[in-house]
Each structure stands twice: as C-alpha cells, then as structure tokens.
Known about the structure:
Chain A is an all-beta fold and 115 residues long.
Amino acid sequence: AQSVAQPEDQVNVAEGNPLTVKCTYSVSGNPYLFWYVQYPNRGLQFLLKYITGDNLVKGSYGFEAEFNKSQTSFHLKKPSALVSDSALYFCAVSDQAGNNRKLIWGLGTSLAVNP
Amino acid sequence: DGGITQSPKYLFRKEGQNVTLSCEQNLNHDAMYWYRQDPGQGLRLIYYSQIVNDFQKGDIAEGYSVSREKKESFPLTVTSAQKNPTAFYLCASSRSGGRFDEQFFGPGTRLTVL
C-alpha cells in the first residue's frame, strides 16, 4: 500500500541550529514528493517538491529537502532555524494507483524553535 | 492578487442542518480539492474535481456533497448525514490536477456543530 510516514510528532530545536524534519514514503511508481507548512489556524503553504533530477531540492524560506531513493526518504532541512519557523509541517506523495490524482499525506510534524 | 478564498472563516451549525462552505479561486486552475483536518489526523480528502462538471469522491465523502458548475468555484455542503462534522475544512486547487502539481490552499473554514 502507498503511504507516507512522518516518524516524529514533534521536533524541538534551538534558534540558529540546523533542523531536520523526517519523511519516508512507499509508492509503487516514481515518487513525486512535496513539503507543506501550516501556521496556526491557517491553510497550508507549499514549500518545495521533488519530481526528478537533483536529489537536493531548494524551496521557500531557506528550506531544502534531500531525496534518497535507497532509503525512500525525503527529509526537510534548514541550516539555521528561526523562531518564526515554528509550525506544523506536512510531507505528501502523489498517489500512483490507477487514475488517482490525489496526494497521500503524512500526519504532520510540529516544529518548535526555541529562542 | 491571485489566490483562494474560503468563507466563512467560522461557521456554527445546529445538529440536523445542512451548511455550505464556499471556495473560490482566481488562479485559473483546473483542479480543486476539499480536505478535512482534525487534530492528530492530518488531512483527509473529501472530494476533488479535475474539471468543470466532474468530481470524484475522496477517502471520506460520506455525509458531504459538492458541485463544480464553474471553474472558479467548488462549494462543499456538509449534510445532516455527516455524524461528526466539527472540524477545520480546507479547500485547495492545482493547475491541472497532475501528479506533480503542487496544491494551493485557502485559509480554511472552522465548522462547529452546537
């Protein structure tokens, strides 16, 4: 079955330190992977996606993600965290089954950046 | 400015009433989506539409209905058959509904059943 896992419900990091939010996936075909961020009581905002090409994808607000095919992972990273990065982060993968045109979502990881 | 609007921001409903949530986009996107978000459960797809006058059930369509009469609009009706409708509802759109298209989200509607 196709799925996305975000193994950590919450990640805590000090401001200025690097951050990593983990995501692993399982799909039957080529993985098209996405990261979104959600601030409290707001809609989601797209950060970045991997379709093909370079394994390191750069996105909005200084975030990047590394695609690792052998480990079926797509971890979100940022070299230096800001307090304003505190939010809920979602990983998603495109459903490859049949004619489905929808995303399969992880349950989210709450990131807290401490000053 | 291009974007997606949802109204109202907050909605209160008595048990047994149907309510309709509005979603409008001016991005000229073909595909639109409705999600439900509950704490700890991530996003669950209710319905999606890839083209006008066509839509498909998502994972939790029971108790909901939609229409797609115009490209810009994708209203969601929460019927009295939905047993636990209190949740945060998110509308989204994407350019063509293709597997590599990112989705753009509205600000959400929080529905509370009294």
